[in-house]
Amino acid sequence: MILRLSATSDEFCPVVPAESYLKVLKQAKAIGVATVLNLNLSMKGCQVEVPMTLANAVKTGNFCANSQLVSHPFSVFNLPYIEASHMANYNKLELDVLLTKGDSIPKDIARKLTENQSECPDLTHQLRHQLNNWYGMLQICFGKDAPISKETRIWIEHIDKFELSYDARFKVVPDFGAKVLGLIDLTFFQFCDSCLKAESFEDVNFAAISLEHDRYCITRNSFQADLPPFLVIQQKRKSELEPADSDEESKKKRGKVEKDKDEKDKSNYKDLGNMVKNQNPVNDWKVVGSKYKKVFTKEMVDYL
């Protein structure tokens, strides 16, 4: 993405790529790009594993989304915070590819290379780390002084300052993190589109990336944003598939629950007759044999 700017604006917004981005472009393969990106991000305090799709987007300069209905590889959603124990070994993955015989690679490795690691944060801690990973990626691709990089740094500082407000929003709105990241993604793509269409420096819409009002709304508990369209479509497809696939399973589960309930009732069953039965009856009170005749005479029987 290169702006066609006048010479007077080169100092503020240079037309040449950032030096850190030029180092990434020297890599011949996407796996090498991912390795370099992971190394640079770790040096910036980021704990993330760059997926191959994002690495390929960085190498080809594919920063702008073509449609909002499909997830884009160069996205803040693809840079989730990952525990160190869950991170893969990229050196091993690269070795597997290099040792593959023939021109093609195994299906399992190909599937690994085409996977996104798209993830939505559920906690303020995860949101903060995911934005920090995004901030590191933007610094590598566009430089630390780029407007989009500075805007992301403001988001991180805002989370650190108003952490309690973010915690409150997560408790009220479970998908709050997805809405925040979706808004950041949308403004980034709009800014890229403005840069591509700009004929001069004055034509660039720098206000597109400013989300100061939305951050203010978070602190006032009045933040309003929609989920990204591709996430809504995914949730809709999932809800449509669940009833058809789970009709028979639901019956089995319902039968299992009823069976468990019956077994539980049987285990809790108590013979109340044994509990109230007199274990030491008085023999004189038993009306058997000749005693029956002494109690009930013929006249009494006829009367009854």
Could you characterize what this model shows?
The structure is a single chain. 58% of the residues lie in helices and 0% in strands. It has 304 residues and is mostly helical. The chain is built from 14 helices and no strands. It has helices at residues 19-25, 30-43, 52-60, 90-98, 107-113, 124-142, 147-161, 163-172, 176-197, 212-219, 229-267, 272-276, 290-295, 298-303. It has one domain (13-237). The model is unreliable at 1-10 (pLDDT under 50).
- Please give the domain count: 1
Termini, distance in Å?
Answer: 109 Å
> What is the H/E string?
HHHHHHHHHHHHHH
- Derived from helix and strand composition plus strand pairing, the structural class reads mainly alpha
The helix fraction, in percent, is 55-70%
SSE topology sketch:
Layout: H1 19-25, H2 30-43, H3 52-60, H4 90-98, H5 107-113, H6 124-142, H7 147-161, H8 163-172, H9 176-197, H10 212-219, H11 229-267, H12 272-276, H13 290-295, H14 298-303
Helix pairs in contact: 2-3, 2-4, 6-7
Main attributes?
disordered N terminus; 304 residues; mainly alpha
Summarize the structure.
This protein is mainly alpha-helical and 304 residues long. It has 14 helices and no strands.
